[in-house]
Structure formats: C-alpha cells, structure tokens
Amino acid sequence: MASIKEKFAAKLPSIREEIKNINKDHGALVMSEVNIAQAYGGMRGVKGMICDTSEVPPDKGLIIRSIPIGELTNRLPEEIFYLLVTGELPTKDELKELQADYAARSEVPQYVWDVMEAMPKDSHPMVMLDTCILVLERESKFRARYTEGMTKMDYWEPTLEDSLDLLAKLPGIAAGVYRHRFDKGRRIPYDKKLDWGGNYAKMLGIKDPQGNFANLIRLYLTLHSDHEGGNVSAHTCHCVGSALSDAYYAVSAGLNGLAGPLHGLANQECLAWILETMEKFKGVPSDEQLRQFTWDTLNSGKVVPGYGHAVLRITDPRFTAFLEFGKKHCFDDPVVQLVAKIYDIVPQVLKEQGKAKDPWPNVDAGSGALLYHFGLTEFPYYTVLFSVSRAMGMCSQLVVNRGIGTAIERPKSVPTAWVQNFIAQKK
Ligand code: CMX
Description:
Strand content: under 5%
CATH topology of the largest domain: Citrate Synthase, domain 1
Radius of gyration: 22 Å
CATH superfamily of the largest domain: Citrate Synthase, domain 1
Bound molecules: carboxymethyldethia coenzyme *A
Largest sheet: 3 strands, antiparallel
Helix content: 55-70%
C-alpha cells in the first residue's frame, strides 16, 4: 500500500529521466505548426503544451491516464484524483487512506466564512467560491517552503500538500457558499465516516432518502474532473502555476475562467434554456416546436448552450453517462425527458446551420436537468459543482508539472502589423 505522495514520489525519477531523454534526443523535432487563422482563432489545434493527466481525442472523448471516462463512471472522485496524479487507480486500502487524509484536512478556517459572509449577498456563487479559495492561500505550504528556500526537485511535494488541503476543504466551502447564498440555514459539518462526494452531497443539505442525489454528485465529480491541458480553466491554472504561484492562486485563477459562459457557466445556461423551452410551450414541446425554438435561439445571435465543443467531434461520453443516469433514475421527469428530446433535434439543426464544427452535446447538456430533478434548483450554483470537480484536474496537473519541472509559460505574441508584414513578404 502506498499513499498518493509515496506512489508519485516512487514514479517520479523514471518519469524525469524519460522526459530528460526525450528533450535531449528529440527536442528539435517539430510537432506542430501554427498558421495565422490559428493565432487569431484561440490557438485551436496548436500542440504547444504537455498534459500527462488526461487527453481528449476528438473522436473518443476524455481518456484519463489511458482509461476512457466511460469505464470510470462507477469510480469515486477521490479514486480519480489518485489516478490523475499517480497514473494508477488506488487499491481499497489506498482509497481508505486518502479518504482519511481528506477527513483530517477538511476543517475550513473561520476567517474564510467571515470573508464570504461579508460579501454582497447577491454576488455570484462562483465569485464567493473563488474568493474563499484565494483567502485560504495564507495556508499555502508551498509558499512557506519556497520562502524558506527549497530545491526545484522538491516543488511538487508542497504542491501536493496544498492540493490535498484545498481539495479536502473544497466540498465544505462549496456547500457553505450554497447554504449562505441561498438562505438554506446553518452549515452542515463534514462527516468523517463518509466519502468525499457523499460528504459534499450531505453538506449541501438536499433531501436524499434514496441516496440517488449523493450518487449523482459522485458521478458529477468524477465526470468533470479533468479535460486535458488546453481548455481555459486548466490552461489558466497551468499558466499562473508556471510562475510558481501556489495552488490556491492557480486554482482560483483557473476557476475564474471556468465561470465564463462559453466554458463552465454553460452548465447553468443550459438548464435555463431547457426551462425557458418548457415555459414557452407549457411542457415538453413537439419536435417541430423544438426545432423552431432552436432556430430562434440561433437567429437571435445566441449559442445553444451545452452543444458544440472546441475539441470533441462526437457526443461527449460524459453527456452519455449523465443521460444513462437520468434514464435509470428519473426519466418520469419531463425536464429530463426534454434533455433526451433536445439531443434528437438540436444536432440536426446545428448541422443544417453548418457553423458549429461539433453539433453534438457536451458535458453541460444534461447535468443541470438532473440536479434540478433532485431539488438543487438554484442554477447559478451549478458551475460551483463543476469547479469542485475540475479542481482535481487542475491540482493534479500542477503537481505533475512541478514534478517534471515545466518552465514558466511565455509564448511569443506578434502585433497585427507584424502579420501584415509577414504576408507581404510571403507574396
Ligand atoms: N450554438 C450556436 N453556434 C455555435 C455553437 C452552438 N452550440 N457551437 C459553435 N457555434 C458556432 C460558433 O459560435 C462559431 O460561430 P462564429 O463563426 O460566428 O464565431 C462557429 O459555430 C464555429 O465554432 P466552432 O469552431 O465549432 O466552436 P469553437 O471551438 O469556437 O467554440 C464552444 C466551442 C464550446 C465555445 C462553442 O461550441 C459554444 O459556444 N457552445 C455553446 C456553449 C457551451 O456549451 N459551452 C460549454 C463547452 C464545454 C465546457 O468547456 O465546459
């Protein structure tokens, strides 16, 4: 049996050696080129960074450490964190040890609550979450060790410590934000006998007689954990972390990106769109009504939230996992039925329109309807749930990157005048 730290430490020397040799023997090999359209177009498709925790082939979807996400849906989120960091799923004992470690680190300091409660009550829940994470930075072990003086080889270790501290406290903070922001009453304490996701569900305080809400939260946390390195949140976290800002700074920065409507906020926008449809048609619309409503959305200049992706070109397997959960546990709910209907209609419309490169649903298309079904109806909160999960990916990427010593990020930018000059020269 090995703790997450021992397992990573044991693997690190050979990983470092491998990367050193790759750089020494093949460092000059060109693995990607970039054209002008890509430079203006969000660097889409440019291979310019390394991420070892997960990859997203456009035709397969998320693969975590060589395991497709579809094969991980029955795993607990804390197992996924162990996998992301070490490349291996934990044994039963290793899992228990990680859960006990989380429990020991779970207490949220009072000053975090004081800051949260002093914020304007109508602040967005994501602002509350990100502020709480930033305030918690005073606990950073990385910053303390760096100030004392530590060798580059050791950077990963206090980064993992910070990550474990932060992840252990995150469900409590996120649930605290929910209960304060939406007047749900007193905070519910961490239950040291429960798993990490189960704890989050319990601390939110949603009635859950059958335990299916807790299972949904576990699934939700597992599915959103990581999505390779180039998406806005992961990349922001990596970029900030590359300056040796600690995990609190870096994760909080990444989550500020997740709060954008084209990224994690689509989660809340998606349910809003579904409910708007239900309201307009006084229930589940007919196929034709839905087709027209989709066109109306597009013609008004809006995107259909939950559809399309920067990398994927298939139905997101994470959407499939949510839809399966919905069909199994709550398909009598018209909101969940509408998710399935939208999946029948929207891709056809997006294909007809011909703009979106990926007309298929992404992870955000169905999760909100499920949360809504179980009574978590405050959809401005949904991106906070996404954040608790995505913090695992961001933290694991930070740990791995500190382990292998990735450099501070500094891509070269050029002004438009340079591009015009370059074009003239080519002519
Ligand atoms: N509805 C309407 N139009 C869409 C669309 C959608 N769902 N998806 C893409 N398009 C449009 C784009 O806006 C773009 O239009 P313009 O040429 O007028 O700018 C065109 O199709 C081409 O875009 P693309 O190359 O297919 O997609 P991008 O890589 O630029 O953007 C994404 C990807 C996710 C931002 C986009 O598909 C989108 O806005 N989807 C809706 C929002 C959403 O669900 N976001 C969540 C993604 C998952 C996540 O990160 O959490």
